[in-house]
């Protein structure tokens, strides 16, 4: 969470401020040591957070149903992107054990920007789908306009682990564990050595890789 807060609090460099040296030592997410001092103080920037998840192998594990429904009740919720094979939907809520969704796939010719755009809103009434029919690959979305919104969201996510009979879909950590790779998300131009190193890090067919049956 510290990385997210740093990205949302960081402002653009001040006019006339010295740019970050190309050879400066960078921390996670592209921030060099002492970068805070070279940036203008900026308010919290609104955050749209999309979290891709897989809630099972072929089907959604029923143990995740409670936490999935709880996400819709969060005030920061933007809904869920998901569906089933050959049918993608935007889920906006639930009733009982069914999810309420909109189908955004209304195709029509392009129009001039000056024309009115009401026809580009969803043209189909909301539909329902049982949670058990949902493909396990989804993405949940949240919007935190202020830092207080983000802190409140963090507290609600941590409370999900206390729901009886439900499994948390994801967990939060304040600091990135030291044993994980730390890609620079603000500097996406990888040279060959970086690409090879990352590929090697995530290579599951390493000769030293072994799955233990407990």
Describe this structure in words.
The chain is an alpha+beta fold and 214 residues long. It has a domain of 100 residues: Alpha-Beta Complex (Cathepsin B, Chain A), CATH 3.90.70. It contains four helices and six strands. It has a six-stranded antiparallel beta sheet. A hairpin with a 2-residue loop joins strand 3 and strand 4. The longest helix is centred in the last third of the chain and has 13 residues. It starts with a helix and ends in a 13-residue tail after the last helix. The relative contact order is 0.18.
What's the helix and strand layout?
Elements: H1 2-9, E1 47-54, H2 65-73, E2 77-84, E3 87-95, E4 98-102, E5 127-130, E6 137-144, H3 147-159, H4 192-201
Antiparallel strand pairs: 1-6, 2-3, 2-6, 3-4, 4-5
GO cellular component, one term: cytosol
Domain Peptidase C54 catalytic: 39-156
Organism: Capra hircus
